[in-house]
Amino acid sequence: MEKDTKSPIDKLLKLFHYLEYGISIILAIIIAGILAVAVIRIAVYSYLLIFSQLLTPTNIDYGAFNDIFKKIMTLLITIEFMNSILHILKTGELKQLLKDVTLITGLAIARKLIIFEYTKAEPMTVIAMGIELVSVGIFYFLIRVDTLSKYVPRGNREVKKKRVDSDPLNK
Q: Which of 5, 40, 74, 148 is the residue whose CA sits 20 to 30 A from 116?
């Protein structure tokens, strides 16, 4: 009879891994449902808005179009978030998750900068948002440099020719 050589900590880590995997699947299903409902609602709202604007072109409501744009940007960020959850389920790469979360954060800040009403904001608020976006960009660059440093020749070592397919900037 074989003895179980795994320590209680290894068993606990394995249990935690299964728990994390299960929660990730549940989150992916919930996000997929939210995305489906959101796409249908945006499509209906866009259809109604476009045809109402066609019938009365003198009363164009630019705020309504801006609202649709905000919703679409939020939907794109949600899709990217779901993609990162599915990627972690598939590969389990923590560093890739860090890169994905950094990109999603950059997208969220960029979305805020795009839809932001600058005329109603304090100048320091605009500067702070710009500094946030630059900081996230620098952080992503540092993560990328660390990832790419594996592929840079050092001394007589041969350069690895592996392509990182999950990196959207490396396609």
A: 40
Which tokens hold the place of 6? 């795994």
Calculate mean pLDDT across residues 29-40: 91
> For residues 110-135, b (16+ Cβ closer than 10 Å) or e, as one string?
bbeeeeeeeeeeeeeeeeebeebbee
Task: Give me the amino acid identity at 19.
Answer: L
At a CB cut-off of 8 Å and minimum separation 6, what does 55 contact?
none
Number of helices and strands in the chain (H, E): 4, 0
Question: What pLDDT does 148 receive?
Answer: 64
| Residues 74, 67 contacting (CB under 8 angstroms) | no
10 token code pair: 């290894």
How far apart, in whole angstroms, are the C-alpha atoms of residue 35 and residue 78?
8
Length of the chain: 171
**Integer angstrom CA distances of residue 75 from 29, 69, 142:** 15, 10, 28
d(CA 75, CA 80): 9
Which segments of 17-171 are extended strands (E)?
none
Three-point CA angle 86, 92, 97, nearest 5°:
70
